[in-house]
């Protein structure tokens, strides 16, 4: 079973836009707006502060309460250094697969949503379908909070949201949150024979990293637990560390990056607060004794809240009646579902393709998966028209 020529054609157009996160997505947004306009659908861009990116919101059907959002992100990961066998931004059809950057993560889902617009409008929807397109999901998560925070400006927000990340059309009802920071430590340099006159930024940073490791061990041994996750506790990871030049010069600068992946019900940002409190009490006094201006600077890289669909929500049953298959699952990676859920919009993650194909060279999505997604959206339209 193929995906249908309209969905494949739309996907080809979407893949042709290089929307890696370091680039603007405005050309893609304008294309989507123009396509929606051909069907008489108005859309509302929500720009970032520097005006070079935008999220997009459109409503199909009446602007009343009780609708369902179909949510995707427009950005994709870079292709540099990957062994592609063809142009990453030219969609190729190979043995039932559609190959191109972003095909599975997650322009395939958005192509299905756009291809469904005429059919959804023809159903005479009694409750609306909200089309929600974000930006920077792969990096800072800046787009989704802007978009979700503005939904009520246009109409009553949707009651439910389907985030179409690749799950093989299996419903995901919970995932961990994600928070990460860049940390910069400044001290005072000098000759290593006179360390009493210096403030060693490398050693201060190392103490912070050691604290993070101790905290990770404490959580693993006796912290909160959430069934269905691997591992079932929150995790802390330090990914990079840079400091120093040569041995006999005390480093006055050190930098490291760390992340927290938190189970539902926990807030990874609290780890940063606890670390800062410990540093203020145990590390900074000694560091500033020799260098009053020494210190730690934390810059947030990304924050994606954890997500869990409430047990009594009707959304899971609705998704299953529309063709979501298997599950439900809980996954360790993050999506924008937590942003919608925190805004009071019950959410589920369910989309075509497999996450194993995401971010890879020759990224692909099966046409049959897109066909299943198109059928899912069509049945959802029937439910909203009933």
Automatic annotation (TrEMBL):
GO BP of this protein: L-arginine biosynthetic process
Residues making up the signal peptide according to the UniProt record: none
Entries under CDD domains matching the protein: M20_ArgE (cd03894)
Domain of life: Bacteria
NCBIfam families tied to this protein: AcOrn-deacetyl, PRK07522.1
Any Pfam family the entry gives: Peptidase_M20
Annotated organism of origin: Falsiroseomonas stagni DSM 19981
Protein name per Swiss-Prot or TrEMBL: Acetylornithine deacetylase
């Amino acid at each position: 079973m193929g995906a249908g020529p309209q969905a494949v054609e739309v996907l080809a157009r979407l893949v042709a836009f290089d929307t890696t996160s370091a680039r603007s997505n405005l050309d893609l947004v304008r294309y989507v707006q123009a396509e929606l306009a051909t069907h008489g659908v108005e859309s509302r861009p929500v720009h970032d502060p520097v005006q070079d990116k935008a999220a997009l919101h459109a409503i199909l059907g009446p602007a009343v309460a009780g609708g369902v959002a179909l949510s995707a992100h427009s950005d994709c990961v870079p292709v540099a250094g990957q062994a592609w066998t063809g142009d990453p931004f030219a969609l190729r059809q190979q043995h039932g697969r559609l190959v191109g950057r972003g095909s599975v993560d997650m322009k395939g889902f958005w192509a299905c949503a756009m291809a469904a617009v005429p059919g959804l409008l023809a159903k005479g929807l009694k409750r609306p379908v909200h089309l929600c397109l974000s930006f920077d999901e792969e990096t800072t998560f800046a787009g989704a909070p802007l978009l979700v925070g503005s939904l009520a400006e246009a109409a009553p927000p949707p009651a439910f949201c389907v985030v179409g990340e690749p799950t093989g059309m299996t419903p995901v009802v919970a995932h961990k949150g994600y928070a990460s920071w860049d940390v910069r430590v400044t001290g005072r340099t000098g000759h290593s024979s006179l360390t009493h006159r210096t403030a060693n930024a490398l050693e201060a940073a190392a103490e912070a990293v050691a604290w993070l490791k101790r905290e990770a061990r404490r959580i693993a041994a006796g912290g909160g637990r959430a069934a269905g996750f691997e591992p079932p506790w929150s995790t802390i990871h330090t990914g990079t560390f840079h400091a120093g030049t040569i041995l006999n010069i005390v480093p006055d600068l050190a930098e490291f990056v760390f992340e927290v992946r938190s189970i539902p019900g926990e807030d990874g940002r609290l780890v940063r607060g606890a670390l800062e409190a410990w540093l203020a009490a145990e590390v900074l006094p000694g560091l500033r004794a020799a260098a009053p201006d020494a210190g730690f600077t934390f810059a947030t890289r990304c924050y994606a809240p954890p997500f869990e669909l409430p047990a009594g929500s009707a959304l899971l049953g609705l998704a299953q009646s529309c063709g979501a298959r298997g599950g439900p699952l809980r996954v360790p990676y993050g999506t924008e579902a937590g942003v919608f859920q925190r805004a009071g919009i019950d959410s589920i993650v369910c989309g075509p393709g497999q996450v194993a194909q995401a971010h890879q060279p020759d990224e692909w999505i099966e046409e049959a998966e897109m066909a299943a997604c198109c059928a899912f959206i069509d049945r959802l339209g029937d439910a909203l028209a009933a």
